[in-house]
Amino acid sequence: MKVEFFRHSLGKDEEQSLIDTLRGVFLTSGPVTREFEKVFGEYLDCRHVIGTYSCTTALFLCLKALGIGAGDEVITTPMTFIATANAILEAGAHPVFVDVERSTGNLDVQQLSGALTERTKAIIPVHLYGHMCDMRRLSDVARARGLYLIEDAAHCVEGARDGVRPGQLSDAACFSFYATKNLTAGEGGAVATNHPELAERLFILRSHGMDKAAADRYTSAYRHWDMPLLGYKANMFDLQAALLLPQIGKIADKLKERTRIRRRYDEAFSDNPLLGLPQTLDGTAHAGHLYTVWAPAGKRDAFLAGLNREGIGVAVNYRPVHLMHYYRKQFGFGPGMYPVAEEIGERTVSLPFYPGLKDEEVEAVIAAVQRTLSVL
Ligand SMILES: *Cc1c(COP(=O)(O)O)cnc(C)c1O
What we know:
This protein is α/β, with parallel strands linked by helices. It has a seven-stranded mixed sheet, with helices on both faces. Strands 6-9 form a two-stranded antiparallel ribbon. The radius of gyration is 21 Å and the shape is globular. It is about 40% helix and about 10% strand. The structure holds pyridoxal-5'-phosphate. Pyridoxal-5'-phosphate binds near residues 80, 155 and 178.
């Protein structure tokens, strides 16, 4: 049986919403984007949401809005998608990596102090696979040191830890609506923040630095606009928002479906001595973005190839950022610098995991994993 790595579950509601928007006046940032920002903010219990073209631009705009750039250091994890670290480079700042916890693959707060210098300006933790970082401890460190805290919450729309949700203990949380994310418009992103001044700057920065968004100029009588800041072209547009809006009301149901699949995988794999599994720590409500297993050391690529031969779609999340060619060449990073991230990077495999995955597909994945492991 062939099982896709990912299939989106957009359907009739999203089609209708898109058609309604197409039949309206706006295609770019307009009333649907504003409605999405309002509804997503209510979902997150966060005061301001700024829709962006992507999570990468959301992270970049946050750094810019907080005045972070050349000469500044920003701390993040090497166990993430390259976009997290690339956003730091795009802003002109210097990326500093801190190794991750073995249990979750998240930035290890205990190792943070060793990476802080007088040039450190911000920390960007990533809630890997949907397991939230320890935001209470991170925000304690950030507050004590006067650092900004920007969450890469691309995996963590639904997550919480110790009663804290994304955006609540940080300056801002950035989300992705890329094709394979839990909420998707193919491409898209957002920043959530409780800080009104930061929100205001982000609204201006995402639209060229104009002091009035194009939508506002249209709906009210004509007014001249000015450009107080150098901004960027990074706005979410109404066709993206039209696809996203109907999904927000279904978040809880979709999470339930993914949780059921996660439990079944856990039950099938947790006793297998050949596989490692990331843990879910006490007090954590897992957002369930990716389901990953850790293959036997040295055998991950054979495991991947075996699963592919069985027709199972797989992915690797992630090979660590510091070992990417560009980062090695530009910053002198190399193997051995972040050993836990490197070990996870050499062993990790993501399995098909999404609402709409049928029971027989889940069982086919489990059987293929077991067969493949037995002949490695
Ligand atoms: C997907 C992803 C991003 C980038 O999201 P885009 O919307 O594609 O820019 C950033 N960080 C993480 C952890 C991601 O998984």
